[in-house]
Specification:
mainly alpha, 0% strand
Length: 84
């Protein structure tokens, strides 16, 4: 459990950048909600580490642009009976 919110925000950003992870994957890894991850990365990180914020913002924008494709692929796997 993190006591320092700014430290958590930086750790989340580093995790997402290193692993090119989604907000959902980061939330699962850190055992917090997607809303908390999003708030940490879009609001808190901006004041704590602007350079890190801009790096993670680029990845979040890419993930947002591609999410409909990943959703379509997941639906296809679901109805074709493929696992994972």
């Amino acid at each position: 459990m993190y006591t320092n919110i700014e430290e958590r925000a930086c750790d989340l950003a580093e995790y997402i950048i290193e692993n090119k992870a989604t907000v959902r994957a980061a939330a699962k890894q850190f055992n917090i909600s997607k809303s908390t991850v999003h708030k940490d990365l879009t609001e808190r990180l901006k004041t704590v580490s602007p350079a890190l914020y801009h790096q993670v913002r680029e990845l979040l924008d890419i993930n947002k642009a591609e999410r409909h494709i990943r959703g379509g692929m997941a639906t296809r796997r679901k109805y074709k009976g493929e696992n994972a």
